[in-house]
Amino acid sequence: MNNQIITQEMSAILKRLGSATIYEAQGAKGAFGSDIKPIDNNMRVVGRALTVDIRPADNLMLHYALLKARPGDVLVVDAKGFMEAGPWGDVLTEQAMTIGVEGLIINGAVRDANSISEVGFPVFCKGLSIKGTEKNQPGKLNVPVTISGVQINPGDIVVGDRDGLVVVSLDEVEQVIQKALQREAKEDIFKEKIRNGATTAELLNLSETLKRFELV
Protein backbone atom coordinates (compact mmCIF):
# COMPACT_ATOMS: atom_id res chain seq x y z
CA MET A 1 0.00 0.00 0.00
CA ASN A 2 1.23 3.48 -0.87
CA ASN A 3 1.60 5.52 2.32
CA GLN A 4 1.79 8.86 0.53
CA ILE A 5 -0.79 11.35 1.77
CA ILE A 6 -2.43 13.90 -0.48
CA THR A 7 -2.36 17.41 0.91
CA GLN A 8 -5.39 19.17 2.36
CA GLU A 9 -5.21 21.61 -0.55
CA MET A 10 -5.35 18.76 -3.07
CA SER A 11 -8.29 17.19 -1.23
CA ALA A 12 -10.16 20.50 -1.23
CA ILE A 13 -9.56 20.96 -4.97
CA LEU A 14 -10.73 17.43 -5.75
CA LYS A 15 -13.85 17.90 -3.64
CA ARG A 16 -14.67 21.21 -5.34
CA LEU A 17 -14.06 19.89 -8.85
CA GLY A 18 -16.32 16.91 -8.22
CA SER A 19 -16.56 13.38 -9.49
CA ALA A 20 -17.82 14.10 -13.02
CA THR A 21 -15.03 16.55 -13.84
CA ILE A 22 -12.39 14.24 -12.36
CA TYR A 23 -13.78 11.30 -14.34
CA GLU A 24 -13.65 13.21 -17.63
CA ALA A 25 -10.23 14.70 -16.87
CA GLN A 26 -8.61 11.30 -16.44
CA GLY A 27 -9.90 9.99 -19.73
CA ALA A 28 -13.39 8.81 -18.81
CA LYS A 29 -12.18 6.02 -16.55
CA GLY A 30 -12.51 5.02 -12.91
CA ALA A 31 -16.24 5.66 -12.49
CA PHE A 32 -18.28 3.45 -10.18
CA GLY A 33 -21.65 2.29 -11.47
CA SER A 34 -24.68 4.40 -10.68
CA ASP A 35 -25.99 1.83 -8.19
CA ILE A 36 -23.73 3.19 -5.43
CA LYS A 37 -25.31 6.42 -4.15
CA PRO A 38 -24.89 8.81 -1.20
CA ILE A 39 -27.48 8.45 1.55
CA ASP A 40 -27.76 12.25 1.49
CA ASN A 41 -27.39 14.22 -1.73
CA ASN A 42 -25.24 16.88 -0.05
CA MET A 43 -22.54 14.38 0.90
CA ARG A 44 -19.08 14.76 -0.63
CA VAL A 45 -16.04 12.62 0.08
CA VAL A 46 -12.36 12.62 -0.86
CA GLY A 47 -9.75 10.37 0.67
CA ARG A 48 -7.33 7.49 0.53
CA ALA A 49 -8.94 4.06 0.06
CA LEU A 50 -8.67 1.64 2.95
CA THR A 51 -10.11 -1.43 1.23
CA VAL A 52 -12.05 -4.10 3.09
CA ASP A 53 -13.39 -7.42 1.78
CA ILE A 54 -16.14 -8.75 4.06
CA ARG A 55 -18.57 -11.66 4.08
CA PRO A 56 -22.24 -10.85 3.48
CA ALA A 57 -24.18 -10.20 6.72
CA ASP A 58 -21.02 -10.12 8.87
CA ASN A 59 -19.21 -6.96 9.97
CA LEU A 60 -16.32 -8.32 12.03
CA MET A 61 -13.81 -6.93 9.52
CA LEU A 62 -15.27 -3.44 9.77
CA HIS A 63 -14.48 -3.37 13.48
CA TYR A 64 -10.98 -4.57 12.66
CA ALA A 65 -10.57 -2.03 9.87
CA LEU A 66 -11.28 0.80 12.29
CA LEU A 67 -8.41 -0.43 14.45
CA LYS A 68 -6.11 0.12 11.46
CA ALA A 69 -7.69 3.22 9.93
CA ARG A 70 -5.88 6.57 9.86
CA PRO A 71 -7.10 10.14 9.43
CA GLY A 72 -7.79 10.78 5.75
CA ASP A 73 -8.85 7.20 4.97
CA VAL A 74 -12.09 6.31 3.22
CA LEU A 75 -13.33 2.80 3.95
CA VAL A 76 -14.06 1.07 0.64
CA VAL A 77 -15.94 -2.10 1.49
CA ASP A 78 -16.97 -5.00 -0.72
CA ALA A 79 -19.96 -6.61 1.02
CA LYS A 80 -20.74 -8.56 -2.16
CA GLY A 81 -23.77 -6.43 -2.92
CA PHE A 82 -25.76 -8.14 -0.14
CA MET A 83 -28.85 -6.06 0.67
CA GLU A 84 -30.54 -7.98 3.48
CA ALA A 85 -28.33 -6.72 6.31
CA GLY A 86 -26.81 -3.40 7.32
CA PRO A 87 -23.23 -4.01 8.48
CA TRP A 88 -22.64 -0.29 9.12
CA GLY A 89 -24.58 2.03 11.42
CA ASP A 90 -24.37 4.98 13.78
CA VAL A 91 -22.01 3.40 16.33
CA LEU A 92 -19.36 2.54 13.74
CA THR A 93 -19.88 6.01 12.30
CA GLU A 94 -19.08 7.55 15.67
CA GLN A 95 -15.83 5.62 15.92
CA ALA A 96 -14.87 6.41 12.33
CA MET A 97 -15.39 10.13 12.86
CA THR A 98 -13.37 10.04 16.09
CA ILE A 99 -10.46 8.50 14.17
CA GLY A 100 -10.71 11.01 11.32
CA VAL A 101 -12.01 8.64 8.64
CA GLU A 102 -13.41 10.69 5.77
CA GLY A 103 -16.25 8.41 4.75
CA LEU A 104 -17.57 4.98 3.76
CA ILE A 105 -18.22 3.42 0.36
CA ILE A 106 -19.86 0.01 0.59
CA ASN A 107 -21.05 -2.50 -1.96
CA GLY A 108 -24.03 -3.35 0.21
CA ALA A 109 -26.46 -1.76 2.63
CA VAL A 110 -26.22 0.36 5.77
CA ARG A 111 -28.67 1.34 8.48
CA ASP A 112 -29.25 4.31 10.83
CA ALA A 113 -29.29 6.56 7.78
CA ASN A 114 -30.95 9.49 9.55
CA SER A 115 -28.42 9.48 12.38
CA ILE A 116 -25.51 9.25 9.95
CA SER A 117 -26.88 12.08 7.84
CA GLU A 118 -27.38 14.28 10.89
CA VAL A 119 -23.71 14.03 11.89
CA GLY A 120 -22.60 14.61 8.28
CA PHE A 121 -20.51 11.47 7.79
CA PRO A 122 -20.37 10.70 4.03
CA VAL A 123 -21.76 7.25 3.23
CA PHE A 124 -22.20 5.84 -0.27
CA CYS A 125 -24.01 2.50 -0.60
CA LYS A 126 -26.44 0.41 -2.64
CA GLY A 127 -29.31 0.94 -0.21
CA LEU A 128 -30.61 0.54 3.33
CA SER A 129 -31.46 -2.43 5.53
CA ILE A 130 -32.53 -2.50 9.17
CA LYS A 131 -31.37 -6.09 9.57
CA GLY A 132 -28.34 -6.76 11.79
CA THR A 133 -25.18 -8.74 11.14
CA GLU A 134 -23.01 -11.38 12.78
CA LYS A 135 -19.42 -10.84 13.92
CA ASN A 136 -17.91 -14.23 13.21
CA GLN A 137 -16.41 -14.29 9.73
CA PRO A 138 -12.88 -13.21 8.75
CA GLY A 139 -12.22 -11.14 5.65
CA LYS A 140 -9.38 -9.21 4.07
CA LEU A 141 -7.92 -5.75 4.58
CA ASN A 142 -5.86 -3.71 2.13
CA VAL A 143 -6.47 -5.90 -0.90
CA PRO A 144 -7.79 -4.87 -4.32
CA VAL A 145 -11.59 -4.92 -4.42
CA THR A 146 -13.96 -4.55 -7.34
CA ILE A 147 -17.14 -2.62 -6.71
CA SER A 148 -19.75 -1.74 -9.27
CA GLY A 149 -17.45 -2.44 -12.19
CA VAL A 150 -14.31 -0.64 -11.02
CA GLN A 151 -11.22 -1.94 -9.23
CA ILE A 152 -10.02 -0.01 -6.20
CA ASN A 153 -6.52 -0.62 -4.89
CA PRO A 154 -5.36 0.20 -1.37
CA GLY A 155 -4.19 3.80 -1.29
CA ASP A 156 -6.12 4.91 -4.37
CA ILE A 157 -7.91 8.24 -4.07
CA VAL A 158 -11.70 8.18 -4.20
CA VAL A 159 -13.86 11.19 -4.98
CA GLY A 160 -17.60 11.11 -4.42
CA ASP A 161 -20.62 13.42 -4.50
CA ARG A 162 -24.21 13.46 -5.69
CA ASP A 163 -23.13 12.73 -9.28
CA GLY A 164 -21.29 9.53 -8.36
CA LEU A 165 -17.93 8.07 -7.40
CA VAL A 166 -14.61 7.91 -9.19
CA VAL A 167 -11.27 6.37 -8.25
CA VAL A 168 -7.90 7.92 -9.12
CA SER A 169 -4.56 6.17 -8.81
CA LEU A 170 -2.46 8.02 -6.22
CA ASP A 171 0.47 8.48 -8.59
CA GLU A 172 -1.84 10.18 -11.11
CA VAL A 173 -3.62 12.59 -8.76
CA GLU A 174 -1.53 15.69 -9.46
CA GLN A 175 -1.78 15.22 -13.22
CA VAL A 176 -5.53 14.59 -13.02
CA ILE A 177 -6.02 17.74 -10.94
CA GLN A 178 -4.21 19.84 -13.53
CA LYS A 179 -6.27 18.39 -16.38
CA ALA A 180 -9.48 18.86 -14.38
CA LEU A 181 -8.65 22.51 -13.69
CA GLN A 182 -8.01 23.03 -17.40
CA ARG A 183 -11.32 21.39 -18.22
CA GLU A 184 -13.10 23.58 -15.68
CA ALA A 185 -11.54 26.72 -17.17
CA LYS A 186 -12.61 25.67 -20.68
CA GLU A 187 -16.17 25.07 -19.51
CA ASP A 188 -16.24 28.48 -17.83
CA ILE A 189 -15.30 30.05 -21.17
CA PHE A 190 -18.06 28.05 -22.89
CA LYS A 191 -20.63 29.26 -20.37
CA GLU A 192 -19.58 32.87 -20.84
CA LYS A 193 -19.86 32.52 -24.64
CA ILE A 194 -23.31 30.93 -24.28
CA ARG A 195 -24.42 33.89 -22.15
CA ASN A 196 -23.27 36.10 -25.04
CA GLY A 197 -25.26 34.23 -27.66
CA ALA A 198 -23.18 31.21 -28.70
CA THR A 199 -24.70 27.72 -28.92
CA THR A 200 -23.36 24.39 -27.73
CA ALA A 201 -23.59 23.05 -31.29
CA GLU A 202 -21.32 25.86 -32.45
CA LEU A 203 -18.85 25.58 -29.58
CA LEU A 204 -18.53 21.80 -29.98
CA ASN A 205 -18.28 21.99 -33.78
CA LEU A 206 -21.37 19.86 -34.30
CA SER A 207 -22.74 21.63 -37.35
CA GLU A 208 -21.34 19.19 -39.92
CA THR A 209 -22.51 16.18 -37.90
CA LEU A 210 -26.01 17.64 -37.64
CA LYS A 211 -26.03 18.33 -41.40
CA ARG A 212 -24.92 14.75 -42.13
CA PHE A 213 -27.99 13.46 -40.33
CA GLU A 214 -30.15 16.15 -41.96
CA LEU A 215 -30.98 17.70 -38.62
CA VAL A 216 -30.38 21.27 -39.75
UniProtKB/TrEMBL annotation:
Record has Metal-binding as a keyword: yes
Residues annotated for substrate binding in this entry: 89-92, 111
UniProt superkingdom: Bacteria
Cofactor(s) of this protein: Mg(2+); a divalent metal cation
GO molecular function, a single term: metal ion binding
Keyword tags: Magnesium, Metal-binding
Chain sites annotated for binding Mg(2+): 112
Gene3D superfamilies: Ribonuclease E inhibitor RraA/RraA-like
Any one Pfam family match given in the protein's UniProt record, by short name: RraA-like
Coiled-coil stretches noted in the UniProt entry, renumbered to this chain: none
Listed InterPro entries: RraA/RraA-like (IPR005493), RraA/RraA-like_sf (IPR036704)
CDD domains (alphabetical): RraA_family
PANTHER family in the cross-refs: 4-HYDROXY-4-METHYL-2-OXOGLUTARATE ALDOLASE 3-RELATED (PTHR33254)
UniProt name for this protein: Putative 4-hydroxy-4-methyl-2-oxoglutarate aldolase
Originating species: Zophobihabitans entericus
